[in-house]
Write a structure and sequence with these properties.
Layout: H1 2-5, H2 13-32, H3 41-52, H4 62-79, H5 88-103, H6 117-120, E1 145-151, E2 155-157, E3 163-165, E4 170-176, E5 180-188, E6 196-205, E7 215-220, E8 243-249, E9 253-258, E10 263-270, E11 273-281, H7 282-285, H8 296-299, E12 313-316, H9 336-346, H10 352-364, H11 368-383, E13 409-413, E14 416-421
Antiparallel strand pairs: 1-2, 1-11, 2-3, 4-5, 5-6, 6-7, 8-9, 9-10, 10-11, 12-14, 13-14
Helix pairs in contact: 2-5, 3-4, 4-5, 9-10, 10-11
Bound molecules: 2-acetamido-2-deoxy-beta-D-glucopyranose (NAG) (3 copies).
C-alpha cells in the first residue's frame, strides 16, 4: 500500500519494499494494541512522503533536502519509540532510515525542514503569487498592499492615498473586483446639509477555489454581527483559516481576515454610523473588468459628489449657509475653537484626520465623529503598509493640485466660520 504513496524511484524505495512486506503483521498488531496510545508511525511516513515527493533527484541540493527530510523522519520515529514498541512497521522504518542515512552520507545532527511544504504552498494563503506563476526557483518578492478607508461624514482615503470628502448619498461601491465587492450606503446626518454618513456596509467575498464559498457579510447601524448572513463565521467548513470573522468589541468592532486573498477588513460602529478600513494586495485590487469601473477606493468619488471641489470648497458651517436656526440643532454647539480643542484631545497630529474631525464636529455637532476619526487613525496604523504615508499633512501651498498632502485652511471672519477643506485629493 505504501508504494502508491511514494512514486519516486530513488533509494527510499527500499523502505517501502520493507514496509510492504510487513504491513500485514502490522495490521494484526493494530488489533492487539488497540488499548494503547496509537503508534503514529504511519503519520511519520506520510510526513516524510510529503516532504520528499516534490524533490527531484536530478537537481542540485537534492541530497541536502533529502537528508533534512530523513532527519525529520528519524525524529518522528524516535518520538514514537515507546508506543510503537513491537510494531514491525516501526522497526523496519527505523532500520530503513538508518540505511538511507548512511547511503546518502546524511549527518545525524543537522537542519530539519523549517516548515512543512504543505504549509508554505498552501493555496489558501496568499503569498503574492497567484494564477499560473510557479513557486519553483522564482524569487519571492513580498506583495504590495493597498489601503482604503471610509469614515466620518464621509471621508474617503483611496488606494492611491488620495483623501476626499464626498456626499455619496445612497448606495455606492467602494470595491468591485474579481475577488471582493464592498458596498456602502450613506444617509444624511443633518437635515439640509450635504453631509452624509455610512449606516450600511455589504461585503461579498467571492468563492475561491477550495478556500471559500461565496460569503456575504452585512452590517447596519446597531446590528454589527460577528457572522456572515448565513450564520457562519468562516469561509468553508473544511478550511476555517482562509476566511474568518473575529469579533473585537461586541456589536461595535469586527475584523475579517481573508488570508486566501491576503485581505483584512475592519468594520466599526461609532455613535450611529459605521466606518470601514481595508487592506488588500495591489495585484488583486487591480484585478477587475472595465465594466467594474465605479469603485470609490480605486478612482475616488465622482467630481459631482465631491464636497472639496478640486480641493478648494469653502463650506460655511455656522449661520447663513445652513438652513434653519442654529439653536435648534445640536451641531450649533461647536465653534471652531471648541471643535479644535475637542479633536485635539483625541488626535495629536494636525493631519488630515484632525481636520476631518473638526469639519465633522462643525457640520454635525455629533461628538461621536471625534471617536470615528480617532479610530480611522488606528485603522490606518494597523493596516496601511507604509508608515511614512500614515499621516497626510495639509501643506501651506495655496495653489492646489492633486497631490497628497496639500492644503487645508481655516478662515475666521465676521462671526462666520469659513472652513476650507483644501485639496484633499
Ligand atoms: C559518501 O562519502 C564517501 C566518503 O566520504 C564517498 O566516497 C561517497 O561517494 C559518498 N556518497 C554519497 C552518496 O555522497
Ligand atoms: C453618540 O453615540 C452614542 C452611543 O452610541 C449615542 O447614544 C449618542 O446619541 C450619539 N450622539 C449623537 C449626537 O448622535
Ligand atoms: C510650509 O511653510 C514653512 C514655512 O513657511 C516651510 O518651511 C514648509 O516647508 C512649508 N511646507 C510645505 C509642505 O510646503
Amino acid at each position: 500500500m505504501f508504494i502508491y504513496l511514494f512514486p519516486h524511484p530513488y533509494g527510499a524505495i527500499q523502505i517501502w519494499g520493507v514496509l510492504l512486506d510487513f504491513s500485514l503483521p502490522s495490521i494484526l498488531c493494530l488489533a492487539d494494541c488497540q488499548l494503547q496510545t496509537p503508534c503514529r508511525i504511519q503519520k511519520c511516513t506520510t510526513d516524510f512522503v510529503s516532504l520528499t515527493s516534490h524533490l527531484n533527484s536530478a537537481l542540485d541540493g537534492f541530497d541536502l533536502e533529502f537528508c533534512k527530510a530523513l532527519r525529520a523522519y528519524a525524529a518522528c520515529t524516535y518520538r514514537n519509540s515507546k508506543v510503537c514498541r513491537g510494531n514491525l512497521v516501526y522497526h523496519s522504518a527505523v532500520l530503513g532510515i538508518g540505511d538511507l542515512m548512511s547511503q546518502k552520507n546524511c549527518s545525524k545532527d543537522g537542519p530539519t525542514p523549517s516548515t512543512n511544504p504543505k504549509v508554505t504552498h498552501d493555496p489558501c494563503s496568499y503569498s503574492g503569487h497567484t494564477g499560473a506563476r510557479e513557486h519553483r526557483g522564482e524569487e519571492q518578492t513580498s506583495p504590495t498592499y493597498l489601503f482604503c478607508g471610509l469614515f466620518g461624514d464621509p471621508h474617503l482615503r483611496t488606494f492611491k492615498d488620495h483623501f476626499q470628502t464626498c456626499k455619496v448619498e445612497g448606495a455606492w461601491p467602494l470595491i468591485d473586483n474579481n475577488y471582493l465587492s464592498v458596498q456602502v450606503t450613506n444617509v444624511p446626518v443633518v437635515p439640509g446639509s450635504s453631509a452624509t454618513a455610512t449606516n450600511k456596509i455589504t461585503i461579498i467575498f467571492k468563492s475561491f477555489r477550495d478556500c471559500t464559498d461565496q460569503k456575504v457579510y452585512q452590517a447596519v447601524t446597531d446590528d454589527l454581527p460577528a457572522a456572515f448572513v448565513d450564520g457562519t463565521t468562516s469561509g468553508s467548513d473544511g478550511n476555517t483559516k482562509s476566511l474568518r470573522i473575529v469579533e473585537k468589541v461586541g456589536g461595535k468592532y469586527v475584523e475579517m481576515h481573508a488570508s486566501y486573498i491576503g485581505t483584512t477588513v475592519h468594520i466599526r460602529q461609532l455613535g450611529h454610523y459605521l466606518t470601514l478600513a481595508i487592506r488588500m494586495p495591489q495585484e488583486l485590487a487591480m484585478a477587475y473588468e472595465e465594466s467594474q469601473d465605479l469603485q470609490l477606493c480605486v478612482n475616488g468619488c465622482p467630481s459631482s459628489e465631491r464636497i472639496d471641489n478640486r480641493g478648494h470648497l469653502p463650506l460655511f458651517v455656522m449661520g447663513q449657509l445652513l438652513p434653519q436656526a442654529s439653536a435648534t440643532h445640536p451641531w450649533s454647539v461647536y465653534t471652531l475653537e471648541t471643535a479644535t480643542t475637542k479633536c485635539h484631545e483625541k488626535i495629536l497630529a494636525k493631519d488630515i484626520y484632525f481636520y476631518s474631525c473638526v469639519f465633522d464636529l462643525l457640520t454635525t455637532g455629533d461628538v461621536n465623529f471625534t471617536a470615528a476619526a480617532h479610530s480611522a487613525v488606528k485603522d490606518v496604523e494597523a493596516l496601511h503598509p507604509r508608515k511614512e504615508h500614515w499621516h497626510i499633512f495639509p501643506s501651506n501651498e495655496s495653489g492646489g493640485g492633486d497631490g497628497v498632502g496639500t492644503g487645508s485652511k481655516f478662515f475666521v471672519s465676521s462671526g462666520l466660520v469659513c472652513l476650507i477643506l483644501a485639496v484633499f485629493s
